[in-house]
Amino acid sequence: MTAPTHETSHDSFLGHLPVRRIGFGAMQLAGPGVFGPPKDRDAAIAVLRRAVERGVDHVDTAQFYGPDVVNDLIREALHPYPEGLRLVTKVGAVRDDQGAWLPAARPDQLVEQVEQNLRSLDVEQLALVNLRRFERDAPDADEPPLADQLGALAGLRDEGKIAMVGVSNVTADTVRTAIETVGIGEVQNPFSILDRSDAPVLDLCREHGVSYVPYFPLGSAFTGGPAAIAADPHVTAVAAKHGVTTSQVALAWLLAQYDRLLLIPGTSSVAHLEENLAVADVVLDEDDLARLEQVEPVTVGH
Ligand SMILES: NC(=O)c1ccc[n+]([C@@H]2O[C@H](COP(=O)([O-])OP(=O)(O)OC[C@H]3O[C@@H](n4cnc5c(N)ncnc54)[C@H](OP(=O)(O)O)[C@@H]3O)[C@@H](O)[C@H]2O)c1
Description:
With 302 residues, the chain is an alpha/beta fold. It has 11 helices and 11 strands. Helix 1 links the parallel strand 3 and strand 4 (58-60). The radius of gyration is 18 Å and the shape is globular. It binds NADP nicotinamide-adenine-dinucleotide phosphate.
């Protein structure tokens, strides 16, 4: 592994662990629909290696990306891992042989999925494991009791297999329960300049100092998020003023919301990776933020 090419300066926290604010989401590295292998395996490996060379120290993944594809790519590209690289995964779902996403979230299934992640990533401990619930996508779904699920993950934390528990795709009530019962290092919910409906959960994270990691930070590849951002006149105007891209404005807007908001933009391209990392230098002023409040909201999903 090549060492990072610049001095690593942590500027935020994932729970109690110092990290840089711009990490990497690995979901886009699988094949179309997050199913099967990437079209270009070498390109996927190159993106991961470049991310770490540039100092990325927070990679978000899942065994069900592929499934079994993305974790293997991460291990192949990055193992032995540089000191301080935080690998974060999520459990609670599996894929069927057509690629459908199925809940699989009984406590015994969660434990087995954590073990799979440990094996495929070849680590003794995961920095954080998110309990991925379905309560926002499918509020009527019959999910196992939250307390049992959180208890299973807290048990793995006691065993040292995971450093922290997180929750994903959850309501404010679930976040409160998780904070009060097991303690959490992260909430990972959909949130972007296009879909700001999770603002109350973000407020809750601010109140409790919990790291907030928005997924679909560019509005979701599944629903044309980056193109919708590029078409918004307010985003376009702010991008022109700063001489940056519309995606960079959308990511900089997220960074401006909370100092423990961590970005994990997903990309399969080195050029987009570089663009996303350069957002660290894009500083929006009060006028920009006021203008961006006028972006037409869109609720995005799978
Ligand atoms: N907990 C959950 O349920 C959950 C759900 C979804 C995602 N996640 C995690 O969150 C991460 C981020 O979500 P996401 O990747 O789905 O985000 P996203 O908002 O869908 O953004 C990804 C899309 O943006 C494009 N993109 C990336 N950088 C760009 C740039 N600079 N300019 C233009 N287009 C750009 C990507 O295409 P290219 O590949 O062409 O760059 C891809 O189409 C995922 O990778 C995954 O780790 C978690």
